[in-house]
């Protein structure tokens, strides 16, 4: 990046006068560690200026009414922000002779701001000026229609012909815009994580010198603007020069006309605007160079941190969240501010999503599966979930901030307290290296800060708290010992159904988009239950339920055909099946090598084009999946298998009726006695036909 030649001269020539000025400014700088969200306060200042520049259509401030100044605090000091701004306003409006010339008054104001950082100094001065200027314009705008405004204006002895003051107001607006641009550069530099990533010494030295000089000229300019506001009081009408009739005065216009208070004031402001314009172009170049270096080095540092083994997770969490704030986290339940030390020696799950996570039901289910899960309270698992909201663009919108406020006060987890303060390098790292787009991801860091799982959201949806510590290795272990049955299939989707399954009750879940088929199916199921078979029937719909699903559910309920999942729980059931498929496939399994994947894919890919539905019947640890004609054949053969349910169980009886046994040779297995084997809920299946084996007690002489 090359600086324009016309500006580079300023860098190479550091006059002794500027050196002295920098020394004086540094003498008055004594930061006490207090912190101000300067960017948000500057947005509030710009908001005021937007409402005062209607007469200057070609001047554009970054209007950001979404930024709420009422929630901006000065951390580390007892003085409220409003009182600080009021105190500085009194200083900039005071033109007491004993305070000396503009330079002396500028240094007095620096002394008043000595405990703040450089960005806070200039933004507080700008906020104080904007407050005074906004109050003046409030009078001007209300003057024609509000008797109170007329009375106040008369007491202040303001000129009645405000239109004649347009040139001065335009000069004020132009200078305010120039000051704002410079302030943004200072904020950008001050927000760089210089303590954590070292810049080249020469660039750092030059940029800091420019920051000191820029801060001086911004604060001096706020005093010049405030002086013009003060001079309006008791201004005589004849003091307003004919120049006021011009809408856009230039330096040439001002120099060619006789002097007047308006002419002199506008000339002074425009000369400062011109100087700040040169300062801004120079400073912007310097800060961009620093920012580019920081981005490159910080990105590489993050890559190195996640490659190397760390002693603990503190440095990783500090780089991710604490570059701009010592207490970057909060407990969503209590609102308490937290430092990253609260997460030391813990597994940390970073829940990365948009400020309004979609779908909401999935988020709430994750809460049920983790924080609200009974196992979470019974165990001593050392892990925390931290919500990291990322906006859809480089800046936060009003709707996104509102969503963050709502969810951050509702979730039981931890959250980044001020996500808009996250370093842009960190945000880009999350997007690029962790592949975050729009769908939520859960990145798992072990107690040492290493990534143990790049996205554990599927694990959380499938096993909930039982997936701790949510690593990829644990995911593989869980699948190796998992059994495909109703208990695992339904899990915690619907508490009542989960209870029925755990009790070993017979259950049939089904789905179809054909109402005629649904009616026919439930008619046959009711015949079966009337014949004495106790079985609950529940409608589960299909993958990606749409509005038509609601109509089917309404019909099922009104005609009392069967039970039905709620629309939300239905979505979660199919979403969890999708998680199962994705999780198994990530382990390299195929349909030919994994029977769970085979059944999951069969359910997910059921297109229902022929109008035939599907059903899964079973109890507890066993089940059978049927669909189409085979399902209806099974129901029609109830007279064949119904009386065998008591002996073979529901699944065994159904398989007995549907699967031929002529070519199957009987097998037997002898098991050592165990009371658990006598339990009717325990079913042992044949290795060949997968049907339940009948149980006998064998007495054998060992002599």
Task: Please provide a written account of the structure.
There is one protein chain. The chain has 703 residues and is of the alpha/beta class. Helices cover 51% and strands 8% of the residues. The protein is built from 27 helices and 14 strands. The strands form three sheets. Strands 4-3-7-6-5-8-9 form a seven-stranded mixed β-sheet, with no helix packed on it. α21 links the parallel β10 and β11. α8 runs antiparallel to α9 and α23 packs across α24. It is elongated, with a radius of gyration of 36 Å. The N terminus is likely disordered.
Strands of the widest sheet, in order across it, are: 4-3-7-6-5-8-9
State the helical fraction. Answer: 40-55%
The coarse silhouette is elongated
Low-confidence stretches: 3-13, 237-259
- Count of alpha and pi helical runs: 27
The secondary structure category is alpha/beta
Q: What's the number of extended β-strand segments?
A: 14
- Alpha-carbon Rg, integer: 36 Å
Mean pLDDT: 81
Q: Main sheet, how many strands, which sense, barrel? A: 7 strands, mixed
Strand content is 5-15%
Oligomer classification: single chain
Distance between the termini: 95 Å
């Amino acid at each position: 990046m090359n600086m324009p030649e016309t500006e580079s001269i300023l860098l190479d020539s550091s006059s002794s006068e500027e050196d002295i000025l920098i020394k004086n400014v540094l003498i008055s700088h004594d930061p006490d560690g207090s912190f101000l969200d300067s960017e948000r306060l500057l947005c509030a200042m710009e908001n005021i200026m937007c409402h005062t520049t209607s007469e200057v259509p070609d001047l554009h401030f970054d209007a950001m009414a979404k930024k709420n100044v009422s929630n901006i605090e000065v951390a580390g000091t007892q003085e409220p922000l409003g009182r600080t701004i009021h105190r500085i306003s009194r200083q900039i409006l005071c033109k007491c002779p004993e305070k000396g010339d503009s330079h002396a008054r500028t240094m007095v104001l620096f002394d008043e701001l000595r405990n703040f950082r450089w960005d806070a100094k200039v933004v507080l001065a700008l906020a104080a000026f904007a407050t005074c200027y906004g109050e003046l314009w409030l009078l001007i705008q209300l003057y024609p229609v509000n008797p109170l405004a007329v009375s106040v204006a008369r007491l202040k002895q303001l000129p009645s012909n405000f239109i004649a003051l347009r040139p001065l107001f335009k000069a004020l607006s132009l200078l305010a815009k120039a000051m704002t641009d410079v302030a943004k550069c200072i904020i950008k530099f001050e927000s760089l994580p210089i303590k954590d990533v070292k810049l080249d010494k020469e660039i750092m030295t030059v940029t800091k010198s420019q920051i000191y000089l820029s801060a001086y000229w911004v604060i001096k300019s706020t005093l010049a603007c405030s002086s013009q506001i003060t001079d309006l009081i008791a201004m005589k009408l004849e003091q307003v020069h004919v120049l006021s009739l011009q809408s856009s005065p230039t330096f040439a216009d001002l120099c060619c006309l006789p002097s007047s208070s308006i002419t002199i004031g506008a000339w002074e402001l425009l000369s400062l605007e011109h100087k700040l314009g040169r300062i801004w172009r120079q400073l912007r170049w310097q800060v961009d160079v620093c920012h580019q270096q920081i981005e490159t080095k910080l990105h590489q540092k993050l890559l190195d941190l996640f490659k190397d083994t760390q002693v603990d997770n503190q440095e990783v969490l500090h780089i991710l969240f604490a570059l701009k704030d010592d207490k970057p986290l909060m407990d969503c339940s209590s609102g308490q501010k937290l430092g990253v030390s609260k997460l030391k020696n813990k597994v940390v799950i970073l829940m990365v999503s948009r400020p309004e996570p979609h779908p909401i039901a999935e988020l709430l289910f994750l809460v049920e599966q983790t924080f609200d899960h009974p196992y979470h309270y019974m165990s001593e698992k050392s892990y925390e979930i931290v919500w990291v909201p990322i906006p859809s663009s480089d800046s936060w919108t009003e709707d996104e901030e509102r969503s963050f406020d709502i969810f951050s006060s509702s979730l039981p987890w931890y959250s980044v307290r001020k996500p808009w303060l996250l370093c842009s390098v960190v945000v880009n790292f999350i997007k690029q290296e962790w592949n975050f787009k729009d769908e939520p991801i859960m990145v798992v860091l072990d107690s040492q800060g290493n990534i143990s799982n790049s996205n554990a959201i599927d694990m959380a949806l499938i096993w909930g708290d039982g997936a701790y510590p949510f690593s990829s290795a644990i995911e593989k272990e869980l699948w190796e010992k998992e059994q495909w049955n109703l208990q695992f299939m339904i899990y915690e989707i619907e508490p009542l159904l989960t209870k029925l399954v755990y009790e070993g009750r017979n259950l049939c879940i089904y789905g179809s988009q054909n109402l005629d088929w649904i009616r026919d199916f439930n008619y046959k199921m009711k015949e079966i239950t009337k014949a004495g078979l106790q079985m609950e029937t529940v409608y589960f719909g299909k993958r990606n339920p749409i509005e038509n699903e609601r109509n089917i559910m309404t019909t099922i309920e009104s005609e009392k055909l069967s039970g039905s999942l709620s629309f939300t729980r239905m979505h979660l059931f199919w979403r969890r099946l999708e998680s199962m498929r994705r999780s198994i496939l990530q382990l390299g399994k195929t349909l030919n090598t994994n029977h769970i994947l085979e059944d999951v894919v069969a359910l997910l890919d059921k297109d229902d084009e022929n109008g035939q539905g599907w059903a899964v019947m079973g109890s507890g640890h066993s089940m059978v999946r049927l669909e189409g004609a085979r399902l209806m054949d099974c129901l029609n053969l109830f007279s064949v298998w119904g009386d065998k349910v008591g002996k073979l169980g529901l699944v065994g009886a159904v398989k007995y009726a549907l699967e031929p046994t002529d070519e199957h040779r009987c097998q037997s297995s002898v098991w050592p006695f165990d009371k658990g084997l006598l339990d009717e809920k325990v079913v042992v299946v044949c290795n060949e036909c997968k049907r339940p084996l009948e149980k006998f007690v064998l007495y054998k002489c060992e002599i």
